[in-house]
Structure formats: C-alpha cells, structure tokens
Amino acid sequence: MSHSSAPFYLTIKLTALESHREAHQPHPTVKFAVNGESIQNQTPLPLPREEFESFCSLVREPGAHQVSLGIDFENGRLWRTRPRRRSLRVAEPEVGISLGSLLQKSPKKMSLKEKRILAVIIAHGILSFCESPWLDRNWDKQHISFYGHSAADESIDLTRPFLSTNFQDSTQASQNQSPFLALHPNPAILALGILLLELEICEPIESHWLEEDLDNGQPNSNTNLTAAERLLVKSVDDLYESYRMAIEGCLNCNFALLQGKMSLENENFREQVYENIVAPLEDELWHGWKLTPDDLQTF
Fold this sequence. Notes:
The protein is α+β, with helices and mostly antiparallel strands and 299 residues long.
C-alpha cells in the first residue's frame, strides 16, 4: 500500500498462448502497468501442495495455531498449500486461572453479587463432589478456577467457576500430619468456611496468619482454623447474618455433634451441612437478587 497522496494504479494483463504455437515461443507472462509504465515478469510457479484427508490432523500439527493454514478444495479433494503468517494473533483464554491467584493479584474487585453467587456454586460443588474420586478432602482456593488470559484479566466471568482435580498446588497442611492433631472433624467443610471468608474479604487466609498460628514458621493442621476464627470475630460487624452463620457452621460444625460420623458420605451429615451451611447461602442470594441455585452456572 502506498502512503503517497498521489493516486496509484495497477493494471494486470494476462497473455494466453494458443495450443498451436511453436515450442520456442515465449511462456505465458503477466504484465503490470504502473502509472502507465509497463513492467513484465515471468508467470510465478504454482505453490507446492499435497493432498490430505483429515482436517483435524492438519490443525493439530505443531505450530498450526501460529499460522493461517493454506487449504484448497478442488474437485471434491482437499489440498494443503503453503501457510501464511497470521496478520493478527488473538490471545486465546487459558484454563486454570485459580481463585487463589485472583485473590492475590487481580486488580478487579468482586461485587457482592459475584461473591454470593460463587459461595452458593462452590458450596453445592463441595456437597456433591467432596470425599469422592472427583475432589480431595484437602481442597482449597487453588482448585477453583476460571477461564481467562491471566489473573489480571478484568473480563473473567467470576460467576462461572470450574472445579479442578489437580492437587499439586494445595496450600493445605501436609497430609502426612496425624489426623489426631487436627481440631476440626472434617477438612473439606473447614476448607469451605475458609473460602467463604476469603471471598468476603477478597484476600487469601495466608495474609492473616500470625506467628502463633505456625510451627517454626510453617503451617500445621490447625493454622487456617485458628486464623479464620480470629478473622471471623474481627469481621462480624461487616457480615450479613446468614453468611456469618454459614461460616460459623463450617468452622465449628456444632450442628453435627450428635450426627455420628462427620463425613459427607454420611447422609445424615450431608443433610445437616445443607441445612446449616448451604441453605443460609441460598437464602441470602434469594433475598438479595432473587436468584436460586437453578439460575446459576453449576460445576
């Protein structure tokens, strides 16, 4: 493209050869006339190409996403030709922007509505999948993820999380520690209470650890529990009653002291968890925005 203010004209003339011409006659040519001056070049050789059958195999080849693929369809057959450089590369969303990274790095602050929607979706997910092959008991915010380009991407839809089964980045205490040292009877429910608090303050629980919560500077089985209990007391005047009740239910499980085994595999315990933790979250979502769990994107 010319950046000159003068008009630029390009005329293309094709000269075809008749079949009866002598072999010594010139080859077909392409003639260019630029601003009235003739320029003659040899006809370019056809680009190399090869036939292929599977479009899927073509787009899966290494580097295919970095170019514009050359594909011809001729007489019912597919041919691949030389690719072109992509003129515009659009960044594709990544999978696995964790809630943990959002709480630490994201400049976007969650609205109250987003917090409550997330709380209900996650609570239902934990009730359905925890203590099953789908989700480990020692889950945390690193296992709640979103689609986005990075943690700083403000276009991330915070109302559509998904549950990750990759447990490599857990911040929970080591599973090698004796369960008899843990004050809380169910780590999955404790983790839900921690996450509800983190959503409310938009900060990771780790930023509220004190030296008294640690052993030689390292977290133990009760670190998050003691930090969360202290933080809940500090934040009590800033929490709606239903939300505070749900967090307290997660942290102390006092509703289930006479319910036998405190496992989500126990139907009695599951019903009590729903009534004392999940239902209050649903009530707050309904009273605030007239939304029910059926209205939300679930796991």
